[in-house]
Design a protein that fits this description.
Length: 619
């Protein structure tokens, strides 16, 4: 083993955390909005039969509703002017039809709402599944540079906003289009001159809405971004409560949360305030148009009654005036409703853009077409002139060359941030080398399938991870078909069996929220039992006994010795008592391998760094 140099700052998975939520969003252009809406539409088209049925119900409901003003106008015209006579037969006919049309329209509208809610839930289920599935395909580096809370915000808040848009807003837009077009056609059939009133008011309404929309769009994007920042901070602080309380930093953390919470509230206020202005303003313009229609319609009606030679295009009955006013409400009402949901659409579009941006993140590079599965792994590992850095500006490993024979144990010690865990990341191919090669049994890891490569290792890390499930299920995580006897044997070897048996439900005890209902040391022992159960030819130990007491550590060392027998092992440790039996110990300091050898040889080295480090821990 030679030529190994490591730069500082490489410990862990590349700790420079660049929160996605702090990245400034680029200005969304019209083409971007169309692209987002088109992608949202593709989810609808996955259920063509349901969409066609929904469109049919929406069209039928709105057309029936559009017939209402015409029928009410005919009922009014059943009164004979001047004589005061009323044709009650026609009145009751039109009133009856009016009731039937509105009742059927309401029933169809209700059925449509139920269908759209069901459809939106199926789409949201699909979208959430796609997002979560895509997250499992992203490289480890993505999670090193994005806050967990921000990612969760995509799955929860952002997709919920899209759900609101799919179940209500899109339906409202389509219904409004049908109503506006239908009302316009009916108004033209009643009195084309009166329609000219809208030539004044509609452009004003459209121009105002367009102006305000441009102003509030970035505000809603900022609102989503600030919420992501708040979620990320909350998730980070809640996961570190013990440390926060140990240092009595509650007040500091609360003040920092208040600052972020205030930013989120300010972002919400600005977006909602500007969004809330659109509805009332457009409503005022529409009411103005209805007032003009009423005045002009009254004038035309009086001219119709007093001028026998009036041009046919200007003739207007009392029922026509009533119907036109109602149609004008149906014409301007949807425009007002569209203005009212502009803010929701803006928020939904911004949320959808964030979701699609996550879905568009480049996944972990696929295995080569020529990649082969590693079989019958012996455990011979080589690092050949490896150069690597998490970012281009900072190289962590320089010309690393290491050869590990099958069944040997290689330990790496050194100060925090020297790049020890980087070696493990390259072994597991969480990252690919910049230069050089890493090989297992003579096969470049880039030429092997990731599944077979990672299955050849079993890992015990400093940070334990247990999922919500029974102790038995957690131990069998790496070997799901294991029998209870095998699990018990692994637990005994890890010195956790007696504790498990002392629990009321034994191996069926439920662990919740990463095992917070048991001690940290016990969680570590369960993960060690999990590793012992897995049948892998190579083993990675990263501070595996850091969370247990000295007595338990000695017991685990004996179990580890049995676990490590016949396997190629890579051990990263600060507690040097755990690596005394390693075949080779690499000592890293100031970015260089300054010493290499077994424990005895390094202890005999006069003035050696390893010897001084070891003595400092035991004196």
């Amino acid at each position: 083993m030679n030529n190994m140099q490591m730069g500082g700052g490489g410990g862990g998975l590349g700790k420079s955390r660049s929160l996605s939520s702090t990245v400034v969003d680029q200005k969304q252009t019209g083409a971007d909005r169309v692209r987002v809406l088109r992608r949202m539409g593709k989810y609808l088209l996955r259920y063509p039969k349901t969409v066609i049925l929904a469109l049919f119900l929406m069209l039928s409901s709105n057309l029936l509703a559009l017939a209402g003003p015409m029928l009410s106008g005919k009922a009014i015209d059943a009164i004979e002017p001047g004589r005061g006579a009323v044709n009650f037969g026609e009145v009751w006919l039109f009133v009856g039809l009016l009731i039937v049309f509105y009742a059927v329209s309401g029933m169809l509208s209700y059925i449509l709402s139920v269908i759209m809610v069901n459809l939106s839930q199926r789409i949201i289920y699909t979208m959430r599944r796609e997002v979560f599935e895509h997250l499992t395909s992203l490289p480890v580096g993505y999670f090193d540079t994005h806050a967990t809370g921000d990612i969760i915000s995509h799955i929860s808040y952002d997709i919920d906003m899209v759900n609101t848009s799919l179940s209500h807003d899109i339906l409202q837009v389509l219904a409004s289009i049908v109503t506006v077009v239908g009302a316009l056609v009916m108004m033209l059939s009643i009195s084309p001159p009166l329609v000219l009133v809208f030539a004044i008011t509609i452009p004003i309404s459209v121009l105002f809405t367009r102006y305000k929309t441009k102003r509030i769009r970035p505000l809603f994007k900022a609102r989503s971004r600030k919420l992501g920042e708040l979620n990320g901070f909350a998730e980070e602080m809640l996961s570190g409560q013990k440390t926060i309380r140990a240092y009595s930093r509650e007040n500091v953390i609360v003040s920092r949360f208040d600052a972020r919470n205030n930013d989120a509230v300010e972002a919400y206020y600005k977006a909602d305030w500007h969004g809330a202005m659109i509805g009332p303003s457009v409503n005022f313009i529409n009411n103005l148009s209805i007032a003009l229609v009423t005045v002009c319609g009254g004038i035309l009606y009086m001219l119709t009654q007093t001028t026998p030679t009036l041009a046919p295009i200007l003739v207007l009955t009392l029922g026509g005036v009533s119907a036109f006013v109602q149609y004008s409400r149906k014409f301007s009402g949807p425009i007002n409703e569209l203005a009212n949901i502009v803010s929701e659409l803006q928020s939904a579009t911004a949320a959808a853009e964030r979701v699609f941006r996550l879905i568009d993140e480049a996944p972990e590079t696929k295995d080569k077409d020529t990649a082969t599965a590693l079989t019958d792994v012996q455990g011979e590992v080589d690092f050949s002139h490896v150069t690597f850095g998490y970012v281009a500006e900072k190289t962590i490993l320089h010309d690393l060359t290491v050869h590990a024979k099958p069944g040997t144990t290689v330990a790496i010690v050194g100060p925090t941030g020297a790049g020890k865990t980087t070696v493990i990341n390259l072994l597991m191919r969480f990252y690919d080398v910049n230069e050089g090669a890493v090989s297992v049994d003579g096969v470049d890891v880039r030429d092997a399938t990731r599944t077979s490569l990672r299955s050849a290792f079993t890992m015990v890390l400093q940070d334990t991870w247990l999922f919500c499930g029974t102790i038995f299920e957690n131990i069998t995580y790496g070997k799901e078909n294991a029998t209870r006897d095998e699990v018990i044997a692994a637990a005994k070897a890890a010195h956790i069996h007696n504790y498990i048996e002392s629990l009321k439900d034994g191996y069926d005890t439920m662990l919740t929220d990463d095992g917070v209902n048991i001690s940290k040391g016990q969680r570590q022992l369960i993960t060690i039992a999990r590793a012992m159960l897995a049948d892998a030819p190579m083993l990675i130990l990263d501070e595996a006994t850091s969370n247990v007491d000295s007595r338990t550590e000695q017991q685990i060392q004996a179990a580890m010795k049995k676990l490590m027998a016949g396997r190629t092992c890579f051990v990263i440790a600060h507690r040097l008592s755990t690596i005394q039996n390693a075949d080779v110990i690499l000592v890293v300091k100031d970015g260089n391998v300054i010493e290499a050898g077994n424990h005895e040889a390094l202890m005999k080295k006069e003035g050696g760094f390893y010897a001084s480090l070891y003595n400092s821990q035991f004196t």
